[in-house]
Amino acid sequence: MYYYKTLKEKLISELKVQSSLAFTTDTWTSCATEGYLTLTVHYIDETWHLKHFVLSTIEVKDHHTGDHLADVIIDICRDFQITDVHVSGITTDNASNDNKADMATHQVFRTHTLQLSVKAGLKVKGIASAAAAARMLVGHFKKSTLAANDLRARQKQLGLPHHSLLQDFATRWNSTFFMFERLIEQGLAVFAVLHNPAVTSLSDARRFELSDDVWRTIEEITPVLKPLQIATTTMSGSNSPTLSLVYPIVLGLLTKHLIVGDGDSVKLIQFKQAVSQDLSSGFPANDDLCRHPAVLTCALDPRYKSLRFLSEDQRQMVRDSIIQLEDPDNTNTTTNDRTVDPEAFPVHVKQEHEISAIQFLCGDLIDLTEEVSSPSSSFSLEYDTFLKEIVSGATDPLDLWKVHHTSYPRLARLTKLYLSIPGTSVPSERVVSDTGNLVTKRRASLIFLKGVLKLDYSENDTQSSETVPTPAKQIKLEPQEPVALPPLPQLEIIEEYLGDGDHAVPDPPLPSLKGL
User: Fold this and answer.
1) Which residue has the higher pLDDT, 455 or 285?
2) Which of 195, 220, 241, 284 could be bridged to 288 by S-S, CB 3.0 to 4.6 A?
3) pLDDT of 391
């Protein structure tokens, strides 16, 4: 408790000096049917490093309504003295009870759409049945020690990687992709085990062996799932800005990786259409799109500042929205302000030996111009100069802003506000996953710890940081006299049960192991 108080006071002091804060939150229920809420805080400090901390994981005993969750979040913020700092946004999942948990005035972002979209595609009849068959096959190898041992022997014999088969989980769609990918890798070894009569019975082989149609479905859907898995991993980061990745990645998936091909099967076409339709519905159309936080954040990210995925009219609307955010009275904008067309400037693509995940997903939506920046007077001119001249091409946009924030001071303040917003609620969900590894079904309740691990600190617990807290009181056990155990009963052979001439013959000695 002493160390927690010390770290909490240090974090409170650091949060007070930040210009803006962003949050993620998630609710979950333990295996003991206890509801919890987790709240994490995110911000960009003065050295342009993105930091994040878990503020609290607290039990929520009342109904998980939006109003009550908002009150819980406000209480946590008050506990950390977050009252005068501007809150840029709260990222949640797509649960309906989070719609009202917006702390009255702050924008709530719900960006769980990608996971839900992929799940919608995996529900296609032919793909769902293939996943069920693969799940049953992997379950057989997970339950049968004999089959698992033979699989390792076959891997060595066939020169395959010594990898175990992976089981998928209902809460993580990408586990289905990993299950399919591993089955394709170990297909020959799996086939050999199922056709080994010494290991697998004929009935089990017929039950667990995948049909040719299932194998074709798995081999066809796995390459399509791969970019979706890369997108999920990229958008789930917490050490670099992610909200600006959301719209370019989604657009890259829609225009590059989910396009229906001439040779696609009916099941693959249905999958692509289901995912594309669900992804497209996650963003507004026309004018509302230009004011969407994910799009505005793209305009402040050097990688996507050209907004090539928008029309010229939409770019102008985004520009006006950015200027309106910094200058609400619109005193800096006139009808004669010059507008920079990002397409009018040459793009020098930085050649790298290894293509990054973002380049793979987004293609030419990334802006890699290389010019020299210079300070500007008005904010509108400052933003137009930023569009034209700022150096880009790095993986982390904060590395560029760390160097060029002095050239664009007003735009830099706005950038800190938006780039600190997480694109997903994964930071809170990771806390849930880590907690699930500790609070299992055998340790679902921590009530027993009150009498076992309770630390009885003295009243000097509030001492300075240089002082070591008083250790817990130890229970002294008085030595007791050893208790003598009763002797074991003697076993005697009762002769009346032996026939005439019979004698109790001792057991023969065990054979020697030398000849074995």
Assistant:
1) 285
2) 284
3) 59
What is the C-alpha to C-alpha distance for residues 16 and 416, in angstroms, rounded to an integer?
Answer: 15
Taking the mean position of all CA atoms in its chain, how far away is CA 232?
A: 8
Q: Which of 63-77, 237-251, 450-464 is least confident? A: 450-464
Dihedral sign for Cα atoms in the order 289, 293, 296, 302: negative
Query: What is the rounded CA–CA span in Å between residue 365 and residue 355?
Result: 14
Q: What is the pTM of this model?
A: 0.72
CB 361 within 8 A of CB 339: no
Per-position b or e across 61-95, b if 16+ CB within 10 A of its CB: eeebebebbbebbeebbeebebeebebbbbbbbeb
Are 193 and 156 in contact, with CB atoms under 8 Å apart? no
Task: Give the domain ranges of the chain.
Answer: 2-110+425-452, 118-230, 237-419
- Can you state the angle between helices 293-300 and 243-252, rounded to 10 degrees? 100
Residue 344 has pLDDT above 60, yes or no: no
DSSP letter string, 404-467: HTTTSHHHHHHHHHHHTS-SSSHHHHHHHHHHHHHS-GGG---TTHHHHS-----GGGG--TTS
Coil/strand/helix, residue 86: strand
Confidence of residue 31 (pLDDT cuts 50, 70, 90): confident
Question: DSSP letters along 464-488, please?
Answer: -TTSPPPPPPPPPPPP-PPPPPPPP
Residue 200's contacts (CB-CB under 8 Å, 6 or more residues apart) are: 147, 193, 194, 208
Question: Average pLDDT of 273-301?
Answer: 84
Q: 218, 134 in Cβ contact below 8 A?
A: yes
pLDDT at 374 over 70: no
**% residues pLDDT > 70 (the chain):** 69
Extract the tokens encoding 396: 């982390």
The DSSP symbol for 351 reads P
pLDDT digits (tens, 9 = 90+) for 415-465: 999 999 998 888 888 887 765 555 555 554 444 444 444 444 444 444 444
> How many Cβ atoms sit within 10 Å of the Cβ of residue 484?
6
- The dotted CATH code for 2-110+425-452 is 3.30.420
Instruction: Tell me what percent of the residues of the chain surpass a pLDDT of 90.
Output: 36
Q: Are strands 20-29 and 35-44 parallel, antiparallel or unpaired?
A: antiparallel
Residue with tokens 């769980």: 112
